[in-house]
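COURSE: Structural Biology Practicum
ASSIGNMENT: Worksheet 4, Part C
STUDENT ID: 0417
INSTRUCTIONS: Below are two proteins. For each, the amino acid sequence is given first, followed by its structure token string. Answer the questions at the end about the second protein only.

PROTEIN I
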Amino acid sequence: MRNQRNTAEGWCLIHQLIRCIVYAKNKQTAITQARSNLQELTSSGEPYDYFVTFEEDEPTNGVAGKDRFGDRPPAVEADSEKGQELVEEGWESQKEAYEKALEKIENFFESTDDAMDIVETTQDGLIRHQMMKLGRYRGYPVFFYDHYCSGLTTRDDLDSALEAPNSENQKIWIVPADVHF
């Protein structure tokens, strides 16, 4: 269930551990770029209300960031062992979120003889909400955002973002963040 603590899957209550993929010359510039992207994702309260990064001086009030998801690096190079770990962990979480939504949709349609029942029912936790999840480009269940703050919803999108940056002097960084929705 989503209301149980599950840090391996990247979510806990109404928190989600996302990853920003940014291009920068150094770690501090990567964090700055990611924070700018996170501001965009939270400025209107949609799709997220607020974010917490994993910098040492980031206040968490005991409910976010390290207090919720444990120690995470503030930024790592994507091609490092820890970077690859963050990518694979996030991708598995994203796939699982999509699979759960799809399973609920499939179960709904298997349990009805009339597809139009969707118009009249609230069965199985708002089936339309599950359908909406599958089409989202921002917010849960999207666990990755690229340098331009676009949600990455396919493995091809993710792999493209992890390819060479736009400049020879830049590296590809993964910056994890705890977001609240």
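PROTEIN II
(use this one for the questions)
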Amino acid sequence: MFCTDRRAARTCPTSTQAVEDAEASAVRAAVGGTGAQVLTGDARRPADADPDRDGAALTAMNALSGTAGGW
């Protein structure tokens, strides 16, 4: 489907998150003054849409391992 830029802007939400493979200082310099946050390390976790899914996945894997292992 092709549409005009105006229609695309109405139908597609604005992206509020991006991933960059560069030094954090370079990214901060590039987005400086825009209000963007550059998150690194553990600070990235709260930006995840569902940060608790890791715990749920671990619980599921523990249950599977216990069942498959005969515990």
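ANSWER KEY EXCERPT:
Q1: The chain is about 45% helix and 0% strand.
Q2: The chain has a mean pLDDT of 81.
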